[in-house]
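Here is one record:
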Amino acid sequence: MTNQPSIVDRNRLLERFLEYVRVDTTADPNSDQYPSSLGQLALGKRILAELIELGLADAEQDKHGLVWATIPSNVVGDCPVVLLNAHLDTSPEAPGADVRPRVIEAYEGGEISLEFNHAKITVEHCPALAELKGKTLVVTDGRTLLGGDDKAGVATIMELAACLVENPEIPHGPVRILFTCDEEIGHGTQQINLEKVAAQVGYTLDGGGIGDIDEETFSADMAIVRFTGQNIHPSIAKNRMVNAVRAAGQFLSELPIDHLSPESTHEREGFLHPYDLHGGVGEATLHLILRDFDTSKLEDYRQMLDDLAIDVESGMPGLRVTVETRRQYRNMADGLKKLPQAVELAEQAYAKIGLPCRRSIIRGGTDGAMLTEMGLPTPNLSVGQHNIHSVLEFACLDQMVSATELLVELVQLWEQNRS
């Protein structure tokens, strides 16, 4: 463990974070634009100005809204280029406009009452609170999410950039910074050019709490089931109407609930999750996500949907049911095997700052999963997020400080890890 005082400016880190979360960057899944919301461009422009102020000469916001910059190497010779990534958008699953963060200094323990809707953050529903007594927390007022996912990551990377610029005696190779858009709706890596990234290893700062090194994710597909019936006025519908809504309801009723559902699974268990249904008598569409750590099982889930579609279709003459699946992302574990140092050096960095860590799995995905599949090994690191995608979301400043300290050590370790 290093005995040197921290170079992280926690007040500056907090102020950046508070300013970032006040910008509405909610991703819009119904938009055909990229990025899907103007707030992401606005926040990116603000961050670009801060990067330029730090003196990063190549800082830019590209035509897609992605923000790029490089902290140049300050040592002689070639070093691995390290990419640090976070996303600018926030989830559409909870309101994200007019965020009003509240800072709780030295959290005293117990439940946290929010201003609106009688909302409370409790230890019962968030066990991590029990470990945060005395820490500085940032909460919402109960009307909106906070946006710590992933503005905690954005603020942490920005503080790391400031620390390295202000402390040139810290040896490091090139550090590539990339802030992406629309991660929450599955498009975070859509506009990334790995040749432009030009890195040998990457890290996403998009994890909860502190101490987790996420080295494995779900493999993921999306399924779209379309029910085509025959609409006609109900007064003359006998033997003529084919109701797509009823067909969709029957299909849903046959999906497993006590197993292979999010409500009934945990740890390494996969699931099929219906999350959107819309339409009418003539046509209805059901969207599902398929998830498993074992990629081969996604084909089993697809076959289950195909078989169910045939059963529902055969029981309703005139009905047509089709199933389309779309690949989303794959378990990052396979890609990380190509560069074991990506995780090993993160573990060493945790040891240097005196914090325990663990290799973890994510029942979901990150941009790191996509980057790893594209060829850039990119595990995910903790950055103080809690209760994400919820009006009960909060962030821990102390954990964000630790995440920044971790990055300071990590970039030094990669400078020492020359081939």
In short: The two ends are 25 Å apart (CA to CA). The chain has a mean pLDDT of 96. The chain has two domains: 10-217+331-416, 220-328. Residues 220-328 form a domain with the Alpha-Beta Plaits fold (CATH 3.30.70.360).
